[in-house]
Amino acid sequence: MSLVLGIESSCDETGVGIARLHPDGRIELLADEVASSVDQHARFGGVVPEVASRAHLEAMVPTMRRAVEKAEVDLGDIDAIAVTCGPGLAGALLVGVSAAKAYAAALNVPLYGVNHLPGHVAADTLQHGALPAPCLALLVSGGHTQLLRVDDLATKITEIGSTIDDAAGEAYDKVARILGLPYPGGPPIDRAASTGDPEAIRFPRGLTGPRDARYDFSFSGLKTAVARWVENRERDGLEVPVEDVAASFQEAVADVLTMKAVRAAEELGVGTMVLSGGVAANSRLSGLAAERCAAAGIELRVPRPRLCTDNGAMIAALGAHLVAAGVHPSAVELSADPALPV
Ligand code: KG4
Ligand code: ZN
Predict the structure, then answer these.
(1) How far is the CA of 308 from the centre of ligand 2 (A)?
(2) What domains appear along the chain, each with residue ranges and CATH number?
(3) pLDDT at 258
(4) In this predicted model, what pLDDT tens digit does every residue of 271-299 receive, in sequence order?
(5) Ordered alpha helix ranges (H), the chain
(6) What is the CB < 6 Å shell around ligand 1?
(7) Ligand lying nearest the CA atom of residue 142
(8) pLDDT tens digits, one per residue of 331-340
(9) Closest ligand 1 atom, residue 305 Cα
């Protein structure tokens, strides 16, 4: 039995999670503490790297203390430490990596530098148990939009598609700004869309032409189309129907994400799809994914929102998978890699 502590600091969430790896391979979540600096970034309309790094520095030790208390363990009981070493913001990642190294050295336990993206997939195993292999993961957040083929969470993950410009969450945040809604834009757009008409405006579905990359995404053209539509409306002195624009934009995002993900699952012959990342909380995205997966006979797994957004529990879970798989720990030279590939 192993107790694994996970540290996450790749963006604006300082997360510390503690998970217990049982002899039968089950991973039990004992603590999941998160401190967010999102409020400090709100007035800038996006994450400010320097502000995020400082916030991590302030929050790291208190978040660690809360996690250990919540799990009702002693720091001395920890058997391994896992930390996000990329991808993400360089300064933010370095705070987590430095903290993890210090704790690993002080406790004399192995240190695992892990990739944030499989971490989002590992989060699902905390709620729904082991994943069938292979499976497909659709990761959608403010920083990433990826389709991953997962053969083994610990050792074999392949990126089969990604956004070529903005991440899906980034598009939500930018469109919210255009519509005068607060940051982060996902939740207010989701709310506004609930009373809007998703068919009011037909916004473009990026990269869906017959010659376009089958599994890649593009959202910057969609964002520009929304901006133009709103500008034209204002120029003509007409009111902007915020609810209809939000619903039509949201429909375009959900349509293209689910269409490509289901197509990938069918073409790869996988029977299970995991939907994770902050945007997985979107009601239309999860609803349409459920509908289209059911029609295609694909099992859809969506972790609860708390596990979808950035957290330390997912890093502890991925660390536990690495321990279980007998993967070698990282060397003491471990550093942060902002552009770490999957
Ligand atoms: O995973 P996450 O917490 O952090 C990143 O790694 O980026 O994702 C944050 C993103 C933000 O862009 C936010 O606007 C979006 O997730 N988001 C949503 C919803 N809730 C959060 N997007 C659409 N609908 C939502 N309900
Ligand atoms: Zn993330």
Answers:
(1) 8
(2) 2-128+307-325 (3.30.420.40), 135-305 (3.30.420.40)
(3) 98
(4) 999 999 999 999 999 999 999 999 999 99
(5) 38-41, 49-71, 90-107, 116-128, 168-178, 186-193, 220-235, 242-268, 283-296, 305-308, 313-325
(6) 11, 141-143, 169, 172-173, 184-187, 190, 277-279, 281-282, 309-310
(7) 1
(8) 999 999 999 9
(9) 20
